[in-house]
Design a protein that fits this description.
171 residues, 6-stranded mixed sheet, two-stranded antiparallel ribbon, 8 strands, 43% helix
């Protein structure tokens, strides 16, 4: 009788583990793959006061990265984004950083320290809503040359994963 209970307990435990892991994998896959839809346009000033409008980059592959100056995973991701931009900008890649709930002075310091040369703007609540409600940062969208969102990444993402996302679309 004791053996039967321990076998049933073991089967129940491993069943729950398998269900939990399967759910996490499914959630991860569905969060990162979305139906293509037009990316909402925006107009913000970058940290130097220059206007940045998403539609001005039509014809380019855009990595649109929502982040914040107080977010450690966001800051860890920045060197990979800088490397990607330097490596692929001549092949049609543009990166735009949209900082939310951030301070200009702090952002300028981070941009300088990390060697960021792509546009960084300070977003507002409206832009987060127009992109489906940004519930976690970093959140990154990959936008194709026609201005359609083709991928959404939640959380910090590595250079290798971004490269997988953009390489098929580069010149």
């Amino acid at each position: 009788m004791v053996k039967k209970k321990s076998i049933v307990s073991a089967i129940t435990f491993w069943g729950v583990v398998i269900i939990c892991v399967s759910s996490l994998v499914l959630l991860s896959v569905t969060a990162n793959c979305i139906d293509s839809k037009p990316a909402p346009d925006f107009l913000f000033n970058d940290l130097d006061g220059k206007q940045v409008r998403l539609s001005d980059y039509r014809g380019k592959i855009v990595i649109l990265n929502f982040w914040a100056d107080w977010c450690p995973p966001c800051k860890r991701e920045l060197p990979d984004l800088v490397e990607l931009y330097q490596k692929y900008k001549e092949r049609g890649l543009v990166i735009i950083g949209i900082a939310i709930n951030s301070k200009t002075k702090k952002l300028k310091k981070i941009v300088l320290e990390k060697g960021i040369t792509y546009p960084v703007v300070i977003g507002d609540y409206d832009i987060t809503l127009r992109y489906g409600g940004i519930r976690a940062i970093p959140t990154t969208f990959i936008i194709d040359r026609e201005g359609n969102i083709i991928k959404k990444r939640l959380g910090a993402t590595t250079k290798a994963i971004f490269e997988e996302d953009i390489k098929p679309f580069l010149n």
